[in-house]
Amino acid sequence: MAVNALALLEKPRQLRCHEIGRQHSDCTAYRHAIQFAMIQSFRHRGLRRMYERGDASRVAPDLAGRVTLALADLDAASNPSDVDLPGYRLHPLKGNLKGHWSISISGNWRMTFRLEDGDVHDVDLVDYH
Hints:
Elements: H1 5-10, H2 13-19, H3 27-34, H4 45-53, H5 61-76, E1 91-92, E2 100-106, E3 109-116, E4 119-127
Antiparallel strand pairs: 1-2, 2-3, 3-4
């Protein structure tokens, strides 16, 4: 399903969930009742605001559309292969971030995260240089 990223940013969280393919009216209550995979924690404050409120003011405007789509994909992911989509260049990280995964957003920008018990944790937006 094609999603208009700018339209997602302008609508409340409940409507965005429906537009990306979930068939329920109250996303928060549904998540707590069903307990499916979702983003549990963030390291980047701007990503948290974008995810919870639809406020993209703390994310670079040229990245906002792609970040919105990536957050929607991570929200639905329960294992790394769920976000192994064309263009994301999914790969595991090494060293201090062993156990974390990275997807490409644009140029040097990457979104990093880890998966634990089917939920996404520590989502961050990082400039690799």
